[in-house]
Amino acid sequence: MSCYLPRIALQPEIHRTWTCYLKRALFFVLTSIATACVPSNAERNKFLASAYQDSLAEVQLCKLALDQSSDGEVKTLARRMLDDHTAAAQELETLAGKLSIPLPRDISDKQKSVLAAIKRLSGPEFNTRFVDYNIDEHEVDVKDFNKQLAAASDADVKAFISRMLPMLNAHLDLARAVQQKSKTQ
Predict the structure, then answer these.
(1) Phi/psi class of residue 121: alpha, beta or left (left: φ > 0; alpha: ψ in -120 to 50)?
(2) Which of 31, 46, 63, 89 is the most buried (most CB within 10 A)?
(3) DSSP labels, 128-154
(4) What global pTM score does this model have?
(5) How much is the pLDDT for 33?
(6) Within the chain, what is the greatest distance between any pair of CA atoms?
(7) Calpha distance 92→11 (Å, rounded)
(8) How confident is the model at residue 151, as a pLDDT?
(9) How far is the CA of 126 from the CAs of 46, 65, 135, 157, in angstroms?
(10) Lowest-confidence range among 9-18, 29-38, 97-106, 107-116?
(11) Which residue, 120, 118, 144, 136, is CA-closest to 179?
(12) Residue 49 class from Cβ within 10 Å (0-12 exposed, 13-18 middle, 19+ buried)?
């Protein structure tokens, strides 16, 4: 069984009009696809501002852990993260200045409430919450940084993310090791 389609002869003027419409539609579709694949400056700025706030929150939380914890492993983790996140925040300030990105001056309200809740704890309960919080946060950070690395088009942003990912993974591994060690004691 064959299918018969009538042959329609288009006048040259109509043919040119349809060709023009099709070219415009194809251009629109391809432009939309390309734009959807490349993050906007707003997305980049939001990511960098969030990373900056996260580093500021880590600095405050690690200072708290150094003051409140008596566990040597927790203090070692806090000291390492304090040094690394202080350096990361400084690097982000430099990068944001270069890209003319405004950074928040303080941590978010959510981070403030988490910090306040952890501050009220003491002893093993403090240590457990500090370590668990850092595991959760660093898991999210590693995913976000990997996602941004894949999507980033700015060479400076990619370089920053590439430097930060090993640090974030190291913090995650250290926090998991402290958590595992405390479970076996």
Answers:
(1) beta
(2) 89
(3) HHHHHHHHHHHHHHHHHHHHHHHH---
(4) 0.77
(5) 54
(6) 87
(7) 61
(8) 92
(9) 31, 8, 14, 35
(10) 29-38
(11) 136
(12) middle
How far apart (Å, rounded) are the C-alpha atoms in residues 106 and 153?
27
- For residue 82, which phi and psi values (nearest 5 degrees)? -60, -50
Closest CA to 129 of 185, 72, 69: 69
Selected residue with higher pLDDT from 40 and 156? 156
Question: So what's the pLDDT on residue 13?
Answer: 64
Decide if 113 contacts 161 (C-beta within 8 A). no
Q: Cα–Cα–Cα angle for 157, 159, 162, nearest 5°? A: 110
Question: Could you read off the pLDDT of 136-170 as tens digits, one per residue?
Answer: 999 999 999 999 999 999 999 999 999 999 999 99
Q: Which domains does the chain have, with CATH numbers?
A: 39-184 (1.20.1260.10)
Buried-state track 111-131, b at ≥16 Cβ within 10 A, e below 16: beebeeebeeeeeeebbbebb
Residue of 88, 92, 91, 90 whose CA lies nearest to 80: 88
> What phi and psi, each to the nearest 5 degrees, are found at residue 41?
-60, -35
- What lies within 8 Å, CB to CB, of 36 at 6+ separation is none
Which residue is it, tokens 């304090």?
A: 82
Give the span between the Cα atoms of 11 and 106, in whole angstroms. 67
